[in-house]
From TrEMBL:
<feature type="domain" description="Peptidoglycan recognition protein family">
    <location>
        <begin position="9"/>
        <end position="153"/>
    </location>
</feature>
<feature type="domain" description="N-acetylmuramoyl-L-alanine amidase">
    <location>
        <begin position="22"/>
        <end position="159"/>
    </location>
</feature>
<protein>
    <submittedName>
        <fullName>Peptidoglycan recognition protein family protein</fullName>
    </submittedName>
</protein>
<dbReference type="InterPro" id="IPR015510">
    <property type="entry name" value="PGRP"/>
</dbReference>
<comment type="similarity">
    <text>Belongs to the N-acetylmuramoyl-L-alanine amidase 2 family.</text>
</comment>
<dbReference type="InterPro" id="IPR002502">
    <property type="entry name" value="Amidase_domain"/>
</dbReference>
<dbReference type="InterPro" id="IPR006619">
    <property type="entry name" value="PGRP_domain_met/bac"/>
</dbReference>
<dbReference type="Pfam" id="PF01510">
    <property type="entry name" value="Amidase_2"/>
</dbReference>
Amino acid sequence: MSMIVQPKPSMVSRSGWGATAVDLSKTNNLKNPAYIIVHHAGDANDAIVKAYPDEKAAMRRYQQIHIGQGWGDIGYHYCIGINGTILEGRTDTKEGIHAPGYNYRSIAVMLHGNYDIRSFTSTQQNKLIDILAWLCYKNNISPSNILGHKDVTATTCPGSGIYSKLSSIRGLVMDRVYPQPQQ
């Protein structure tokens, strides 16, 4: 089976959301990623998206928290806001900080909010499928290697609202990247 070209979805650039400039020159390059790992912010009581309902402001806050933890930048490569906006995170040429043991071989996609308590909307799901299909195509990653954070670490991430749909999302990405011929 050959892959079908997947377009890069529309997204807000780092400058578009007001990212703090960072120096990742000492961060390892990400080479030949084999996995895409889906996360949620998972903040207690959904606090950040409640305090920062503007998706760009929420991105700035997540970046501040991660820099404050010594991560050098936001730990995720791409994020999806509560309204479904895709936002560029850490450059996908550098290792993320999101899943110990997998950072060097995976791309991270995080959804703003806590999906153990928040509803995962169809708009967010569609945007997640768009970015996952593009990342699979761009990096020659099998859709079967789209994982939830809990698949590689003892955590509840990406939250039950997302994780319960991850198998069907994987299938939808597979159908998009490797469509079956019509008979």
